[in-house]
Design goal:
By secondary structure, this protein is an alpha/beta fold. It has nine helices and eleven strands. Strands 5-6-8-9-10-7 form a six-stranded mixed sheet. Helix 5 (110-117) packs across helix 9 (221-240). The chain is elongated. The N and C termini lie far apart (48 Å).
Length: 259
C-alpha cells in the first residue's frame, strides 16, 4: 500500500525541500500524508481542468510544479479564483504536492530535462547548482538554433535578444534557465555559454543581456518547464509504477494563445 507519506519521502530524496529558494512553498498543499494513494497525476499547474482530469481518472494525488498556494492564505474565500480551486481540491479529497524551485535545480529536474529536450550533451551545472549548460552536436547560427528550439520545445514563437554584431554568431555551448530568468549572469560568462535559453525575460533584463553581449532566447515559461513534469512522471513511475497508476496530464495547457 502506497501512502502519501511514502511519496513525500521519495520527493524529498530526489528534490530536497532545503534546496528550494527562500520565497518558495513546496511540499504537501492539501490532503493528508496518511492517505492511501490511488494514483498520481503530474502537471505544471493546478487548474480546474486538471482537477476534473484527476477525478475522472480515479486519481487522488496530484504533483504540480507551481504551488497553487504560494502566498499565505488569510481566508478560505471561495468567491476568489484561488479559493474556489482550493475548495474543489478539498471536497474531492485530493492530495496536492508541489515541487518547485527544488525540482528546478534537482539532478534530474526541470533544467536537466530542458537540456535533454534541446539535445544537449555533456550537461554540467554552474557552481551554485541552479543552472545547467551543455553542448550541441553541431554548431548552429542564431536563426537555425531558434528554429531548433521551437521544434524541440513545441513553441509557436520565441523572442530573441541578439546584440549588435552577433546576428551570425555560431551557437555551440547552450545555457538553460527554465521559467523566469533570475537575472544572474556570472555563470554565463564563466562557462563560455554562447546562447541562453530561458522561459521569460523582463524588459529591463533583456536590455542588460543585450549590453552584456549575450544572445538570449525567451521560449516561454510553459514551454521550458512542462518537460520537467514529464520527467517527474517518468521518475515516479519507475519507483512506484508497480504500486499505483502514474499519469501525465493531458488537460494541462499553456495559458497563452498566439494569434
Amino acid at each position: 500500500m502506497l501512502k502519501v507519506y511514502d511519496l513525500m519521502k521519495y520527493l524529498e530524496k530526489i528534490a530536497p525541500s532545503e534546496n528550494a529558494l527562500s520565497f518558495d512553498n513546496v511540499g504537501l498543499m492539501t490532503g493528508s500524508k496518511e492517505r492511501e494513494v490511488t494514483g498520481i497525476l503530474c502537471c505544471l499547474d493546478l487548474t480546474r481542468e486538471v482537477i476534473y482530469e484527476a477525478v475522472e481518472e480515479g486519481v487522488n494525488t496530484i504533483i504540480t510544479h507551481h504551488p497553487f498556494i504560494f502566498d499565505p492564505v488569510r481566508r478560505f474565500d471561495e468567491d476568489s479564483v484561488r479559493g474556489k480551486l482550493l475548495g474543489m481540491a478539498v471536497r474531492h479529497e485530493l492530495n496536492v504536492l508541489s515541487a518547485h524551485t527544488n525540482w528546478d535545480f534537482a539532478d534530474e529536474g526541470v533544467n536537466h530535462a530542458l537540456c535533454a529536450r534541446l539535445g544537449l550533451k555533456d550537461i554540467k551545472e554552474d557552481e551554485f547548482m541552479q543552472h545547467r549548460f551543455g553542448v550541441l552536436d553541431k554548431e548552429m547560427d542564431v536563426t537555425e538554433f531558434c528554429e531548433h528550439v521551437k521544434d524541440r520545445l513545441q513553441a509557436e514563437v520565441v523572442k530573441v535578444v541578439i546584440p549588435e554584431g552577433l546576428e551570425r554568431k555560431k551557437i555551440k555551448v547552450v545555457g538553460v534557465s527554465s521559467g523566469s530568468f533570475d537575472g544572474e549572469i556570472s555563470w554565463i560568462y564563466e562557462n563560455g555559454v554562447d546562447c541562453l535559453v530561458t522561459g521569460e525575460v523582463k524588459h529591463s533584463q533583456a536590455i542588460d543581456l543585450n549590453m552584456h553581449g549575450f544572445v538570449t532566447i525567451s521560449a516561454g515559461h510553459y514551454e521550458t518547464e512542462v518537460w520537467g513534469m514529464d520527467a517527474m512522471a517518468d521518475i515516479v513511475k519507475e519507483k512506484f509504477g508497480e504500486k499505483t497508476r502514474i499519469l501525465k496530464s493531458v488537460r494541462q495547457k499553456n495559458p497563452f494563445i498566439f494569434r
